[in-house]
## 1
Amino acid sequence: MTMRGRAAEWSAVLDLLAAAQDGRSGVLLVEGEPGIGKSLLLREATRTARARGVLSVTVGAPELDRMPLVESLLSALGEDVIADGEGPSAEQDRHMWRVERIRAGLDERAGAGPVLVSLDDLQLVTPTALATLRAWTSQLAGRPVAWLLARSTVKEGKAAGRLFGLLEYDGVRQITLPPLDDDALTRIVIDMLGAVPDPRLAALAGQSGGNPYLLTALIAGLRGENGIQIRDGSARLVAAGLPRRSQAAARHLLDRLSPRTRHLLTVTAVLARSFSPDAAAAVLGTTPTAIVPQLDEALSAGVLAVAGEELAFRHGLLWQAVTDAVPVPIRKALHQQIGEVLFDRGGPATAAAAHLMQGARTGDPRGLAELDRLVDDILPVSPQTAVDIALRVVRLTGPAEPARTDRTLTAVRTLIEAGRLDEAAAFTESALTRPMTAAAHARLCCLRSEILHMQGRSAEAAVDAATILAEPGLPDRLRDAAELALLNAQVAARDGTLARRHAQAIVEAADEHGDALVTGAFITLALAAWDTDDLAEGLRLAREAVSRAASIDAWCLHPRMILAMLLTDVRRLDEASSVMASAGDDIKVRGRLVWAAAPAVLRARLHLAAGRFDDAIAEAEAGLAATSGSGPHVLMSSALAVLAVAALRSGGPNTAQRYVDRVRPGLSQYGSPHAEARFALVTSQIAMARDGAGAVATAFAELCEQVPEHSWALVSDPTAAAWLVRTALALDDRVRAESVVGASERLARENPGFPSVAAAAEHARGLLDGDECALDRASLDHADPWARASAAEDLGALAASRGTGSRQSAITSLDQALAGYDGIGAAWDAARVRRRLRRLGVRRRHWTQGDRPVSGWGSLTDTESRIAELVAQGLTNRQVADQLFISVHTTAFHLRHIFRKLEIGSRFELARRVMEENRQRTPSNAHLGAATPVSTHLPGHVRGSHGSEAE
C-alpha cells in the first residue's frame, strides 16, 4: 500500500539511507502505537534501499515470533544457526559466538557497500538482546551501516523504551508516528476503493483515529461484505454496522492485553466511549484503586487515552468493535446494570436513562418502571431524551398491559413539551384508534386539543375541547384542562364574545377551579379588554394573571409574557423589559421547548419598537429556529412579522419579501388573533413599497374593515393608522381614511393615559387634514423612534407640497426625519428622505453607510462596540446578554459580525484589538467610548413605505 501522510518521516528515512551511501553510519528510531504504520514505513525503506543497491537485512514480527533476535539476524544474514552439539560447547559461549558472527557479518558486508538493518517490533525483544543491539550500533559506528529500529509503544516494550532512550541520549534521531490527518485517511480510502468516499463513509473512516491498520481493516471488510456501493467515482456507505474484519482487527490489538484488562475494556466499552475511573469501578463492583493496573495497561497499549478528567477509547472504531463483539443478551444485561448503578450513584439522569433504555426488554416490568420514573426527572433537563424514553417504554409495553394507556399519555405530553408537535399529532391520532377507557380517551383528546391550538388549528381544537366537556363525570383536573383548551381555542378562533363570557364565568367561580384555568381566564379577559380598546383594564387583568401564576401548569405560556407583550404594544418598553427580566428562568422552565420561541419573539418586538433592527432580526431568527422542529407553530407569523418590518425599515422591501416568502401566513399568536393581522399589514406595506398603492387595494380594504371592530393593529403599531390613512389617500379613498382616523381618535379618547396612542391619532389626523401642527406634535410625542421620524417626514413632505414659502420648514422637518432614521439604522427610509431633500435642492451626505468602512473598528455598530468591550473584559456570551438585556443568540449573532469585520478568529484577538483602540483614543474623546453611527447588515435602498418613491 502507498504511504500517505508521512512526508516528514519518510524524509528522515531517506536522510538515513543517503548517509549510508556516503559511507557514514546512522541510526533512526521509529515508534508509535500498534497499527500506526511502522511496519509499512520499514517495508518501504527496504524496497527503496534495494532499488538503490543498498544491501538490506530485515527482521520483523513474524521472525521474532519464531526465534530470538540473534537467531533471526543470523538467518537474515544467510548464516546458519548453530545446532545443539555444534560449535562452542557452553551455551554462553555459543551465544557470544553468534553475536560475534553477526557483527563480523555486518562488518564484512559493509566493506562491500552500504547496509540497511531494519528491525521491527523491538518491544518483543529481551533486554539482553537489546543491550547487544546497542553494542553493535557502537562497534559499527565507523562503517556505512544504517540502522532503522522500530517499536510499538505498549507495556511489554519497556526494555525497548529504555534502549530508545539511551540511544536518543547518545544523539540518535527518534521519530514518533502521529495519527494520520483526515486528508491522509481520505487518500487511503481512495487508494483502496478507487472512488471518493461519501460523507458517511468519510466520517466512519475518521473514527479510526488516524490509525491506518484499523482503517484498512474497516475498508477491506466493508468492501468484502458489500458494505460499500461504488458508482460514478463515488463510494457510498450502505452497511449498518462494522464488518467482521474490523472485529478481527480489534481482537488482534487487544490480544496482547491481560484477560483482566480485556474484561475491563469490555465493560467500559458498554458504559461509554469516555468514562471516569470511579464510574468504571462502580459498575465492576470494586474500587478505583483495584483497577489501576488494568487501566495503566490499557493506557500503555494505546487503547485508552486521557480525555480531560476522564479516560476514553482512543479510537472510535476500536470502541465500537469492542462493543459490537459483546453478544446482545449480555450487552442488554450490562446496560441494565450500568443504568441502575449510575442511577443509584446520583449522577446525571440522562446517562442512566440512556443505559436503562438500551437494557429494557419487553415484559421487564422493573426496568420499564424505572424508565417511567425517569421521564419527569429528565424532562426539564433534556426534553428530547425524555421523549425518547417515553416512546421506547410505550413500544416495549404490550397492547393489553394496564400501564399502556398511562405511558401513551406520558409520551404525548413529552412530545408536546419537547416542541415536536407534528409527531405528537401523529402519535395521538394513532393512539386514539386503540381501545381505552372513557377517561383515558378524554385525556388524550384534551392533549390533541392543545396540539391543534399550538399549531394554529383553533376550530378543530375547540371541537375536541367541547366534546370532552360534554362527557359526564369528568375529574376536576381533566375538566379544568379541557376548559382551558376550549378557552384558548375560542380566543384563537376570534370568537371574542364567547371567549369573554366563558372566561368571566370561570373567574366568578374561581374557587371551583385550579390556578392554571383561572390564570388562563384572566389572560383571556385581558386580551378581550385590549381588543375592545380598554387598555388600562387589559393591563390590570394581565397583572392579575401574573399574580396568580405561581403554580400554573407547565403547559401555559407564562402570563408575564402576555403582560410584557401588552406593555410593548403601548411602548412602555422599560416596564416591559423589567417584566421580562423579573420572570427570569421561570419563563424558560414553564414554557419548556414548546414555548421556547416566545421569549425570543417578544424580545424581538421590544428591539423593533426601540429601533434596534439588528437585534430584532437576531431574536426573531432565534424564535423561528426554536420552532423549526415542531411543524406549524402559532408563533411563526409573529416572528416573521418582526423580521419583515425590521428588514423593510433597514434593508427595503426586496429584503423584507424574502422573509415573507419563507412561511405561508395563516398562523396566529397564542392568546391573540391579531398576529396574522399584523403580518397581513406588513405584507401590504411591502407590496405597496414594491409596486405602488394599486397593488394593495384589495388587501387594504380588508385591513380597513377590521379596524373599527378590532383596533389591536392601531395599538400595537403606532404607525399603522398613519400608513392606512396615507394609503387610503393614495387610492383616493377618503371615506376609509376618515374611518381609520375616527377609530384612532376614539382609541386615544377612551385611553387618555397612553401617549403612544394619542401620538398615533395626531399623526393620522395630520395626514388626513394636512394639519402641520398635528404632524409636528406627533413628531415630538411618538414614543417609537421610527414613528417620530415618520411623522417628521410626513410633515416635511406636506410643507414641501405647499410651495416655496414652506421650503425651509420642509427642509427642517426632513432633516429631523433623516437624523431620526440614521440614528436607528433605518437606511432605506433615510435614503428616501435624502431624495426628498435633493428635490428641494439640498444634498445631505450619507453618514450611515457611505462614510462607514466595511471592515475595521470603525465599521462596528453601537451594539457591536458595546459587546466587543464587554467580551474584552472577559464576560461570557451569557453575561453579555444579561448586561445588555439581549439573548445569547443575539450576542453570538453580533459577535460573528464583529469577528468578520475585524478579521479575527478568537476572543483573545478581540481583547487585544479593544486594548489597542483604547490606547489610541485621546483624552479629549475617550469619554465618548467606542460608539459609531449605527449601521445594519441589510443592504439596499428601494421604494419607500411613505409613498412610491425610489432611491
## 2
Amino acid sequence: MTPAAIDDTTLYAVLAPFAAAVVAPILTRWFKHNAAWPLAIVPGLIFLHFAGFIGPVSEGQTFVASMAWAPSYGVNFSVYVDGLSTLFALLISGIGTFIILYAGGYLKGHPQQGRFFSFLFMFMGAMLGLVLCNNLISLFIFWELTSITSFLLIGFDHLRAASRRAAVQALVVTGGGGLVLLAGFIVIINATGEIEMSVLLSSPDLIKDSGLYVPIFLLVLGGAFTKSAQFPFHFWLPNAMEAPTPVSAYLHSATMVKAGVYLLMRVHPLLGDTALWTTVLPLFGGITLLVGTILAVRMTDLKLMLAYTTVASLGLLVMLTGTSHEKALEGAVLYLLAHSLFKGALFMVAGTIDHEAGTRDITKLGGLRSAMPITFVAACLAALSMAGLPPFIGFIAKEVLYYGTWGWLELGLPITVTAVIGNSLMLVIAAAVAIKPFFGPKVDTPKHAHEGPVLLFAGPVFLSVTGLGLALIAHTTGVLFVGPTLSSLLGEFKSIDLHLWPTKINAPLILSVITIGLGIALFTQLDRLRAIIAGILAAIGWGPDKGFDQFVSGVVGFSAWITRHLQTGKMHTYMMLTFGFTALAVLLPGFLTNSLPAMPKMPEYRFYEWGIFFIAILGLIAVLIAKTRLTAIVSLGIQGFAVALIFMMFGAPDLSFTQFMVETLSVVILALVMTRLNLSPRDHRTAPAALGTGVIAAAVGLGLTLTLLAITQQPFDSRLSEFFTEYSRSIAHGRNIVNVILVDFRGVDTLGEIAVVVLAGLCVLALIRVRTKPEPDSEGSEPDVVQTQKAEAR
C-alpha cells in the first residue's frame, strides 16, 4: 500500500522535545520544585498526537511527511508512520511523560535539575527522530544524536570518575557502531539508488538482489549490536547504571537500547529470512540472553540486576527477530511491549528504594512493604509480568514466543531450550527484586525508609498496571498494537487474535510450566547459585569490560608513539611527511586500479623549444649541485623563468609577465629572508637523508606529472570556456578573459587568496623578528648544528 501524505504536524512533534529542552532550565527556575508538571505536558501531547494514528495504522495504513533539509544531497527531514514506528513513538512519549515526573521527584532540589531536564528532552527528540525518520541519512543523524545525548545523561554526575568512564565507554561503543551503520547506509544508497526507507520497503528484494547483501548485512548488524548491547558489546549497558535512575529507567530499559532492535525489525523485510540472518542473529541473541541472565544472578545491586536482565531481554528480542518465523516475530513484538512496561517500572522502583532507604543492595534491605506499600504493589505487579506469570502481558508474550520457537523447524529445539533457561533465570531476578527488599524482617537502612512522593510512584504504578490492563484486553492489544507492528516486520498486513488464557494444553503451556518450576527451584538456591557464578567469573578473570580498558590504553599508547615520531618540532620532518603522503595519494590509486595514463608521443620540437627545456634542465642541475643554500634558491628561479618562456611562446604574454614577476620577487624575498635567519651556509644532511628526500621529491613530481597527463587526456568540455568568452565582454566589460575571471567572476576567491598571502607574509615577518638568545658553546660561539636545529624549528 502506498503511504499517504500527511501535514507537517508530525514533523513538529518530533522537534517539540528540542524546543522543550531550550525552555526546561527557565521553567525549572520559575517553578522550582514543581517544574516537572508543566514539562510533562510536552511528551503527553506528543503521546496524544501519535495515539491518533493507532486506528488508521491498525487497518494497514501508512503515512509519510517530508521537509527539505539538504535537498542538493537528497537528504530530507521525513517521517514514515506505520505500526512499528507508532508503537515506538507511543512508548517513547508515554514512558517519557512519567520519566519527566519521576525526575522531578528524584532530583528535587538538585542545583542542576534544569540541565538534566534539558538533556532528557534532547534525548527524547533524538529517539523520536530515530524511530520515525524515513530518510536514511537523517535517521543516522538522530541515531548518533542518541549516543551524544546519552553520553551527557550518563555522565551527568561528571565529578565522579565512574560516571565519566561509563559515559565515555557508552559513547565510544555506540558512536563507533553508528559510524559502521553510516557505512552500511551509504552502501545501501549506492547499491539501490534509494535513500528513503519507505521506497526500499516497497521493493524489499532490492538489497538481496544487489550483490552487496553480505557487506550491508554486516554493517547494519554492527550498528544494531553495539546500540542494543549484544555480546560481546554488552558491557557498556550495565556500566551506564552510573547515571541517575531516571536515565536508567528511560534510556537503558525502555528506549535507547531498543534502537538496535528497532533497526533490525525495520530492515527485516529487506535483510531478513536469509541463511545468514537466521544463523547470526539467533546465535548472538541466544548467547546474549544467557550471558545477561547469568551475570544478573551474580549481582546484588538492584539496578545492576535489572541492567543485566535488560541485556538478556535484548538478546531474546534479537534471537526472536533472527528466526524470521511469523509467530516468533509476534512474540518479539509482544515481549518488546511487555519489557518496556515492566522494566521501566522496576527501574523506577529501584530508584525509589535507593532514594528513600539509602541503598540498593538487596542483602541490606528487607521488610519495606509496610514502609513503602505503594512502591511494593508496583514492584510486585511489574515483577509478575517480568516473570511471565498470568494475568500479565509478560505471560502472553512468553506463550507466543514459545509457540514461535517451538514451531521453527530449522533450530527450534536449541532456541527453545535457550529461551526456557533465560526466562527461568529472568524469573529468579524478578522474584529477587520483588521479594528480597520488601519481605522478611525489617532491616535498618542508611535512611529511614518511607513512601516516596507521588512523583516517584506515579510512573511505576501506571506502567505496572498498564502491563496488567493490556493483558486483560489481549484481543484489543493484538489488534491495535501487535498486529500493525508485526505487519511492518513481515512487509504485509497481518491480523492476529490474542487471548490471555490458553484454550488447550499445548507445547507453549507446558514450556511455561517448566520455566516457572525451574525458576522457583533456582530462586530457592539463589545464594548458592550466586556463589557458583562468582567463582566461575573469578576463574575466567578477563572480560570485555577489561578488554575495553586495554583497548583504550593501547590506542592512547599508540597515539603517543605516533606523536613522538611525527610531531618532532622540526620543519624538515613535517615537509617530508606532507610530501610523502602527497606522493602516495597521487600515485597509489593509479597503480592499484591499473588506470595510469598513456604516455604521449614525443612531438616535433623546434630548436628554441629545445633550448627552453635545456635551460630548465640546467636550472635543475644547478639546484642539485649548489654549494650553498643561497645559490640553490637563486638557481631555483631558473625553472620559473623557463615556464614563463613557455607561456610566452604559446601566446599568453600576460601570464608570462606574471610568472617572471613572481619568480623574480620570490627569489629576492627568499634571499632577503635568508640574510635575517641564522642559518648555516651549507646543508648538513647525510647522504641517506638526502637520498630519501630526493626519492620523495621524484615521487611527487612523477605523481603530479601523471595526474596532469590523466587530466589532459580526458575529453575537453568547452562549455565553461564558451561561457566566459561570451559573457566577459557583455557582463564584466573586459576584453582580457583571464583578468575578468580573476577580478569579476572569481572576485571573492581572489580576495580570499590575497588575504591568505598577506596573512602568510605577516606570519613570516613575525617569525623573522623572533630573537632567540644564543646558547654559546665552550668557546662562546654557537655550533652550526645548533643553529641548523633552531632554524628548522622556526
